[in-house]
Amino acid sequence: MTEQRQDGGADGAPERGGLRERKKTRTRERLLRTALELFAARGYERTTVDEIAARAEVSTRTFFRYFATKEHVALATQELIERWFLQALRARPAGEPPVLALRRAVLESWGELPEVAGLSVPVDLHLRTCRLVARTPALLAARLRRAGESEEEMARVIAAREGVDPERDPRPRVVVAAFGGVMRLAEYRWGAGEDGSVEALRALAVQHLDHLAPSLLREWGGNADGRGDPGGTGGSDGEPGDRTGLVPRQSATAEPPARARPAGEEPVPS
Question: Is the CB of residue 213 less than 8 Å from the CB of residue 269?
Fold first, then answer.
């Protein structure tokens, strides 16, 4: 009797609860892996929930206990990576400028992709699913819809880091919108290319992020490496040297910026 209580009570309920949870986890992972394998082999549109359930040796009703829709299971691993990225973003040092924090967080989370994706499915299957999403209109639309929710959370993280109110200060949402657009462009080009490796995705992301500030703030001069004429004439509504009109002129009486750059912080390229 005493030994039973030490193992979790005379009725063993905690132990059974632990076994139930492990069984549920294994069932979910089996459904997820089965679904992604079928999508990769047959295509998303041609695969049905009934087929996924039958291949995983569970009922269709069981499938819907774990995933609300077929779309949900197709995007499950990408949502896991996004949650991992948000954790990495929250953990970035407070002194980093927003764009730098976003860049380093996403590259860090991709560097740990095998470990993260491996919690559910092999990393190569996750990458094949990412490319499938990019080529499937229904999934791409769902991905973009869900990306809006994720970017709103990113903007709130940035606002909290910078000590501003995102409802009154548009900058957190603006910087996240620019970052998200660049990342989607890199992912689209990766999905359309021949190399589906993590290294190829990372290289494209770095290449596109490197051109974010130069594309907006520098004289292009026909150079793809971002080295334009730093002494451009500037637009009528912007600072001298800015041909975009995106950087407002600073008047002699303008107040100093609310947030001074911490010691050692790298200036934003201009």
Answer: yes
Which has the minimum average pLDDT: 11-25, 79-93, 178-192, 250-264?
250-264
SS (H, E, C) 71-109: HHHHCHHHHHHHHHHHHHHHCCCCCCCHHHHHHHHHHHH
Spatial contact of 80 and 116, defined as CB atoms under 8 Å apart: yes
**Cβ atoms of residues 149 and 82 within 8 Å:** no
Q: What is the pLDDT of residues 200-228, one digit of tens each?
A: 888 888 888 888 877 777 666 655 554 44
H helix runs in the chain, sequence order: 2-6, 13-42, 49-56, 60-66, 70-74, 76-90, 98-111, 113-117, 123-135, 137-162, 171-192, 198-210, 212-217
